[in-house]
């Protein structure tokens, strides 16, 4: 049974978190491998004459959500529901919640959110708020800020007394053993899972992270309460800075991510030489290999792209194309982690060079700068060519 948290996290205004640790999920959005799990966080604000529920949980935990909610408030006393984002990992519990409340409750969402609520659940009676709009509820001022494409076009955040209810913005994978950022070692362990979450979920829209951060910079944020992962009470700016850094692809000096497939060891021989050369030149390679014994998670590969200084791909020839797993990996890197970073491509072939034609075709319309294609015939390893390519990279990064 997933762990469920219902705790009071602020006294004035009185705010509760409802968090469920989804340790059953294996593939977020039915694609991203997350053995570390993900939490869904909702919040309840108790005010004078109003109880405001903010977001919810995934639909398969609707019963657990109602049970958790009932521990902190009589659901029939809920007056407002704010839907920051309609993706069903946050809105799936909404129909059951409305049924339990059993009376008219004001649902507040963005204009796009209203359309999606009708499309997903047939919910038509929704109050639409505009960017920057303020509403007084229970004697408190709620401000709604549109943050489109973080992660869907419907997405907004809600600001109340310096507290930002940010849904997907500020989220991360992992099931931290505490609720907030008070413990440094937990935060350090958590941040790589935030990177992984950003790249896999929001990476396609990463320019909107920069726009959103700029927009939110006008707010004085004393706490950030996201829809996934840790709550940020001690240092919310640290998380926002992390989001910006991932969106920009700030590199870590010397980090080079090397990804290759090797069916019969030919590519591996070439890449071993390339990796040795990288190490000799002071780089720190992070290596992912697809073989008949190994299959790294694509989500893990994606996590390592933003702070790499450069990428190196090693590809075999497969039915006159590149290996299918390398194709998928490249397509996802291009889609989710398209950065202005230098790239080397090594190709190994049996009868005709193909890396430039295949991998080159995939990469040509991207931001990546391809420094060289190095084509090797089978086991005829040309160490000089490999050395030249790595030296070219070294020079590029000096
Ligand atoms: Fe966590 Fe876009 O939903």
From TrEMBL:
Q: State the Gene Ontology terms under molecular function.
A: electron transfer activity; FMN binding; metal ion binding; oxidoreductase activity
In this chain the Flavodoxin-like domain maps to: 256-398
Entries under SMART domains matching the protein: Lactamase_B (SM00849)
Q: Which InterPro entries match?
A: Flavodoxin/NO_synth, Flavoprotein-like_sf, Metallo-B-lactamas, ODP_dom, RibonucZ/Hydroxyglut_hydro, Rubredoxin-O_OxRdtase
According to the lineage, what is the superkingdom? Bacteria
Protein family according to the UniProt entry: In the N-terminal section; belongs to the zinc metallo-hydrolase group 3 family.
Protein name (database record) = Flavodoxin-like domain-containing protein
